[in-house]
Each structure stands twice: as C-alpha cells, then as structure tokens.
C-alpha cells in the first residue's frame, strides 16, 4: 500500500519540478545568448518582419523599402541586459537605419513598439538614440569628428547596449573610424525585450549581427572608447532630452528636396497606345515597385517594366523618372535602353486587390497587386528561384520569389493552403512559360500570408489518422491485457492465500481428528468389534478427506507456474498426485517454447490438473503422458492415460469434464475428450495465442486480420443469403 502511494507522489513531484525548470529556462534572460546571425548561409528563420522587404542577399540582410518604421526582430522577450552590434549600410538619403533593444508589443507602423533604438541619420549626420512607446523621444549626437557626413552605400559599425536603465550606443565608419558614443539613462526604463533591426524612410543592409549578454564592465568600456579631448561622450537623463531638442520626426526644413522632373513626362498607361510601326521615345514618372529580378515602375495609371542602360541601387518606394525606347506587346509595354533618375525617396506603392480572373486579362500587367489562391505545387526553378503554382476558381497562376528568406517559407507552406500574395503581376512569357495566363513576382516572404491551412481530409491526413487509430487500438489492447493480467494475478494471489488458510485450519483440523480417532481405537477393548469397525471406517473417511484437502490446496496454490513454466508445473502436480504409487509420468514439449499469457497458462494448468486428477482417481492408469505443442498462433495441451477409460455416451459430469470445458471456453480454446475402455482417455486443448507483432510484421498482421474478417462476413452472408426472411 505504501509503495502504491509513494510512486504516484514521486512521479507527480518529478513532473512539477520538471515543469518549473522548463518554465524557468523559458523565461531566462540569457536563453539564446550569445547569438550570431546565419545570413552567410542564407538562413534567417528566427527573424520576424514587420513591414519592409527583408531578404538575405550576399550574406547580409537587406531591406530595399523606403517604408517608415520597417522592423526585423529576433530573440526572447525576456532578454534584459545585453548588447547588439552589426555592420550597417544606408541605401538612401532622408532617413535612418540602426538597431533595436528591449523591443516588445510590436506592430507594423512608424513607432509602433515599446523599446529603444539607435540609428545613423543622413539628414543631420548624427547618431540618434531614443525610446519608442507608440511615440518617439530622441537625443542626437553628431559623428566624430564633428561635421563628418553620414553617407549612403558606406559601411558603419554600430553597437547598442542596455544594462539596467542605462543605454549606450556607438557608431564608427569602417574600417578604422573613430567611434561616436552616446549614452542616456532612463529612470523609468523598459526592463526586457527582443533585439532587432530597423529602418526609417530609407533602405538598409545589415551584416555580422551579434547579440551578447552585457555587464557593467561592458558599459564602462564603451564609455571609455568615446572619451577624447576633442569630444568626450556625453550621458544624459531621459528627463533632459527636451532641453536637447526632443523631436517626434526629423525637422521638415532638413528634409532633402525633390529634384525637378521633366515637363515632357506622360502617364504609363499611354505607353500601350504607342504605334508599333516606329520607334518611340517616352519619359514617365513613377514609384519603384520591384527592383529584382527586374525593375518595375508604377504610377496611378499602371505599371511598366524597365530595362536600364546601367544598373543602379534603387529601392522600393523611390520616385524616379525613366526615359527610354517604348516596346509594346499585346498586353504590356516596356521601356528599353532606359535612363533612370531618382527624384525622391517616397512611400512604397500600396497593392491593388484583384481576383485571379481580373489579373488574367492583362489589365494589371506590371502592377503591384494582391491576389489569393490555393497552393497546388511548389518547386525550385532553374535559377534557384522559388516557384509556386496556384489555383483560384477556374484560373491558374504562378508566383516567383527570390530564395533569400523565402527558403524558410518554402518548407513551411503546405500544399492545399489558401494564401494571399502581394507582388507584381506580369504576363511576359519569360515568367509564365506559356503555362499560366499571368505570374506574380513576389518581393519577399513577408508578402505571403497564409489565410487557411490545407483541409484535414487530405489523403496524407487520412492515412495518418488511420495509423493513429491503429496505434491507439494497439495501445488500448495492450492496456486491456495488462489490466486483465493484473486481475488474474490478484485472483492467483487470493487463491494462494486461501490455500494457506485451508492448510493452517481445515487440513490441520482434519489431521487432528484422524489422530484422535486413532487414539480412541487404540484405547477401545478388542472385544468391541463393532466399535472398532466403525472407528476404522471413520478413520478412512478422515484420511480421504485429508487427501482431498491436500489436493485442493495444491490446486489452489500453483506457485511454481510463473517461475517454472506450464510443463514443469503440470509435471510436479502429476508427481505429487501419483506419489507412492506405480504410475509413470511422461512429459514432452515440441515447437518454439514461448512465455504464455498469465490467463492462458493458468487455465491450461487448471484443465491439465483436473485431467490428471481424474485419471488418478477413476482410471487407475499405469502411465500418464503430458505433452505441450507450441505453434505460431496456438498452444496445444494433451493429457493422456492408459487407464480404464469410459464408453462414449456415458454421463461425464462426474469426471469434471463440464468444468474443464467451461474453462477452455473462457480463453476461446478448443476442447476435446477422447476415451475408450481399451485405450484410456485423451484430453486435448488448443488455445489461440496472439501473434508476435513487430515493426516489420504489423502490416501483415493487420492485412491478415482484415482478410479473415472479410472471409467470415462472406461466409455468414453465404450461409444466410436472406437474413430478413422467415
């Protein structure tokens, strides 16, 4: 009883302790630290994007969008004291790019997060450090030496550290620039959050991102690096930021002005009406909607593909002026040999929501669209790009994406899922391969949204469900047999207990009565012959009762069955019953001997015991044979004797045959008794055994079971072709 209580308590305690350890590890501020990016291996599965067009290109993370407040985050929200550093390159003017620490509650938007940000800004050539909380407060620190500009397309090394309520940021021009260090103390600071990358109104490139746990020593080292006679690093309280000119956005008079455009610009939609008979030059003005694998520009009337004379570092959202030779096709137009001039870093163009049928008409060629479809197939293209095939109603289309961060998306998306895509619609056969009416050039994996997963009734899920049900059935069967085995074990233990009680009470009492009768007979005078005769009869009855009691005790207490096996147990039983007589006991076993289920072994033992006892009591044999034959799916027990036997048709109730038959039926065994007065008696029992199910054999076992089931049903229908007729 004590053991039954201790084991569940120990398991419960172990489970609780394990859960607490797992919870503590999950909330640990050092979980996942130190961290180093895998951009060099084109992997970024652990990063989450909010806005922008984030892609891994050339071993670095790149955002080619001018979107305001694009963020890319990684790590645990329980990170507390740590630093993040990286090499950063700005891709445009009029904005900034940098690093985030202790970020949480993030959403898409300019300052839609709680956390700290340090970035390099081009419009005032400064290192900005501030706090966002769905609003913005900042302090600006000019780069060292004073007056040095922050330039696009140059690498800077940045580091942002948070320790306690102190924030320290540094920036230096690579490879050997002097670091500019900025430090602020926030009395009501944010305690923990994720790390990340961020850009504002400018694209950017990040590489060699490293996150480490920080200490006070790291803070002191960063502050020491920034101290010099010319310009020592400054430390400010967040309450002093207003005195330093806290701003909610860069001052408008510092924004770079747009370049003037040509007065001869025309709308993009007018290019489709250009005559095919002669070469025509045209100038259009629009916003860049895609810069890879081809350049596309869109205005309010439509979009156009551009083949520039020379490649330029353009970002999604740049407002440009394009001049080139017009090439018109059936549904699209293109500007070849074009010159591209950046006018302004504008806001990226929003997507136009259309159906697949509308896009298939070609009316939205070279336009940034949003369309939905069911994923039918996915594969890698000849140029290592990702190709996805979709169905939407009666229309089919394909989506093409650069590998980059899309490689993670490729493994995540499941066939049959309903997806929403944002990308540039094209009808050029170079992309459609004459297979679909249009294709969608997806800018990044963040432009793919899963609306619904594949239906659960797919073939794979049905097979998995069938296998799961089969495993569940096997588990239930195993548990059932374990419970049944425990129940039978309890019955055996109770029988053994009853045998001990009978031995200590009934058997001893009967033996005592026998001794008393023998003593009375000895003390009775010899001339009382009638009394002597009655005492002898009583003593004989007592001896017979004592023998029956011993036999019952032996039948109730087969303690050797589990330890010695069925054959040895029956052998011992037979030897005890014929002890002192001239009966020969012969035993034998054939086949692959295997352990038997407790219920089967106990039942066969009882039947064999009864058969041996009947032979000894009634048949007066000179030889008793016990044989056990093991087969693949059955075990056979044969108990035979050469005694007097009985004739067919005689009442067999007194020989215990009815009890043996009922025992055999309890384990679905076949029971037979063959007897004759000339050859003795044979008791045959054939008990079925469950086949040995292995990892290799279980499909065959299931197939044989189903085949046998079908055969039984067919036989039943054949025997009664009209089950409802009377």
Structure in words:
The protein has 726 residues and is α+β, with helices and mostly antiparallel strands. The chain has five domains: 220 residues, Exo-inulinase, domain 1 (Jelly Rolls, Sandwich); 78 residues, Nucleic acid-binding proteins (OB fold (Dihydrolipoamide Acetyltransferase, E2P), Beta Barrel), CATH 2.40.50.140; 101 residues, OB fold (Dihydrolipoamide Acetyltransferase, E2P); 102 residues; 125 residues, Heat Shock Protein 90, CATH 3.30.565.10. Helices cover 30% and strands 33% of the residues. Strands 1, 3, 4, 6, 11, 12, 13, 15 and 16 form a nine-stranded mixed β-sheet that branches. It has a seven-stranded antiparallel β-sheet with strand order 2-5-14-7-8-9-10, with no helix packed on it. The chain has a five-stranded mixed β-barrel with strand order 17-18-19-21-20. A hairpin with a 2-residue loop joins strand 24 and strand 25. Helix 6 packs antiparallel against helix 7, helix 9 packs parallel to helix 10 and helix 10 packs antiparallel against helix 11. The longest helix has 65 residues. The protein is elongated. The C terminus is likely disordered. One of its GO terms (molecular function) is protein dimerization activity.
């Amino acid at each position: 009883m004590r053991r039954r209580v201790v084991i569940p308590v120990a398991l419960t305690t172990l489970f609780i302790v394990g859960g607490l350890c797992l919870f503590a590890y999950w909330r640990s501020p050092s979980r996942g630290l130190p961290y180093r990016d895998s951009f060099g291996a084109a992997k970024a599965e652990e990063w989450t994007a909010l806005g922008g067009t984030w892609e891994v290109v050339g071993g670095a993370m790149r955002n080619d969008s001018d979107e305001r407040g694009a963020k890319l985050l990684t790590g645990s929200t329980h990170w507390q004291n740590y630093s993040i550093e990286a090499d950063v390159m700005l891709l445009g003017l009029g904005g900034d790019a940098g690093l985030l620490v202790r970020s949480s509650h993030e959403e898409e938007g300019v300052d839609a997060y709680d956390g700290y940000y340090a970035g390099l800004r081009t419009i005032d050539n400064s290192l900005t450090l501030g706090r966002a909380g769905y609003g913005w407060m900042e302090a600006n620190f000019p780069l060292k030496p004073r007056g040095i500009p922050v330039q696009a397309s140059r690498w800077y090394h940045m580091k942002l550290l948070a320790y306690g309520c102190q924030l320290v940021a540094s920036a230096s021009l690579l490879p050997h620039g002097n670091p500019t260090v900025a430090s602020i103390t926030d009395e009501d600071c944010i305690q923990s959050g994720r790390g990340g990358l961020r850009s504002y109104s400018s694209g950017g490139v990040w590489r060699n991102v490293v996150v480490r746990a920080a200490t006070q020593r790291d803070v002191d080292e960063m502050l020491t690096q920034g101290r010099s006679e010319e310009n020592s690093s400054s430390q400010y309280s967040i309450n002093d930021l207003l005195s330093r000119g806290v701003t909610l956005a860069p001052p408008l008079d510092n924004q770079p002005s747009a370049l003037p455009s040509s007065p001869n610009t025309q709308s993009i939609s007018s290019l489709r009406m250009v005559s095919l008979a002669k070469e025509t030059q045209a100038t259009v003005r629009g916003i860049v909607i895609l810069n890879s694998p081809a350049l596309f520009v869109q205005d309010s009337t439509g979009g156009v593909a551009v083949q520039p004379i020379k490649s330029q570092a353009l970002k999604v959202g740049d407002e440009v002026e394009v001049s080139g030779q017009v090439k018109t096709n059936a549904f699209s137009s293109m500007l070849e040999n074009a010159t591209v001039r950046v006018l302004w870093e504008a806001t990226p163009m929003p997507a136009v929501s259309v159906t697949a049928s509308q896009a298939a008409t070609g009316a939205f060629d070279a336009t940034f669209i949003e369309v939905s479809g069911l994923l039918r197939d996915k594969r890698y293209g000849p140029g290592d790009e990702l190709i996805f095939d979709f169905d939407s109603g009666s229309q089919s289309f394909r989506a093409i994406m650069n590998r980059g961060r899309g490689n993670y998306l490729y493994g995540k998306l499941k066939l049959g899922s309903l997806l929403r895509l944002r990308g540039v619609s094209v009808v050029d056969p170079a992309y459609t391969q004459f297979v679909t009416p249009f294709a969608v050039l997806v800018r990044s994996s963040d432009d793919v949204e899963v609306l619904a997963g594949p239906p659960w009734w797919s073939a794979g899920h049905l097979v998995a469900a069938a296998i799961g049900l089969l495993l569940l059935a096997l588990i239930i069967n195993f548990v059932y047999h374990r419970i049944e085995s425990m129940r039978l074990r309890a019955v055996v233990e109770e029988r053994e207990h009853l045998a001990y009680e009978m031995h200590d009470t009934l058997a001893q009492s009967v033996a005592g009565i026998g001794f008393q009768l023998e003593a009375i007979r000895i003390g009775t005078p010899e001339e009382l012959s009638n009394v002597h005769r009655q005492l002898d009869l009583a003593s004989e009855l007592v001896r017979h009762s004592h023998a029956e009691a011993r036999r019952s005790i032996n039948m109730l207490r087969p303690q050797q069955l589990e330890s010695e096996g069925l054959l040895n147990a029956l052998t011992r039983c037979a030897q005890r019953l014929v002890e002192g007589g001239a009966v020969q006991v012969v035993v034998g076993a054939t086949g692959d001997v295997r352990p038997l289920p407790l219920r089967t072994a106990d039942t066969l033992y009882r039947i064999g015991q009864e058969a041996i006892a009947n032979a000894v009591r009634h048949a007066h044999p000179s030889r008793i044979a016990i044989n056990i034959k093991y087969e693949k799916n059955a075990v056979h027990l044969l108990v035979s004797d050469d005694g007097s036997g009985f004739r067919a048709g005689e009442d067999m109730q007194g020989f215990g045959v009815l009890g043996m038959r009922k025992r055999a039926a309890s384990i679905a065994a076949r029971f037979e008794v063959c007897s004759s007065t000339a050859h003795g008696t044979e008791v045959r029992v054939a008990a079925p055994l469950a086949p040995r199910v292995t990892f290799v054999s279980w499909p065959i076992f299931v197939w044989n079971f189903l085949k046998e089931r079908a055969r039984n049903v067919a036989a039943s229908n054949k025997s009664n072709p009209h089950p409802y007729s009377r």
